[in-house]
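Reviewers of the previous submission asked for a worked example of the structure-prediction workflow described in the proposal, so we include one complete record here. The input consisted solely of the amino acid sequence. No template or homolog information was supplied to the procedure at any stage.
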Amino acid sequence: MKYMLTWTERPQGSPIEYENAQKRILEVFTQWQPSANFKIELFVIRVGDWGGYMMLDCDDPTAVHKFCSMLPAFVFEARPVIPIEDAVRVELESIAFRDGLKRQSS
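From that input alone, the workflow returned the following structure tokens.
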């Protein structure tokens, strides 16, 4: 399953708390190694902001949850996603199904 992760920094408080949180985030993240089933396809940070996006492929939702739990200074959203061609195909199938239904009389 492919996931799009997005994150933003939680409010920390004073400037020194933000600085300490940034140091801790980098300390934790630089020592993290993704598991074999956690395949990162895109990993970007929003310029001038404390957040970003990660597109990944992972067959274990607990591995995704574990990653999000590793950095509690951030609010994460993990959204399962599918390729646009798959979405269009099933939408067309749904439309054909609806169009093929008999109308019930009122």
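The CA atoms of residues 84 and 90 lie 10 Å apart. We consider this example representative of the routine output the project will generate in years two and three.
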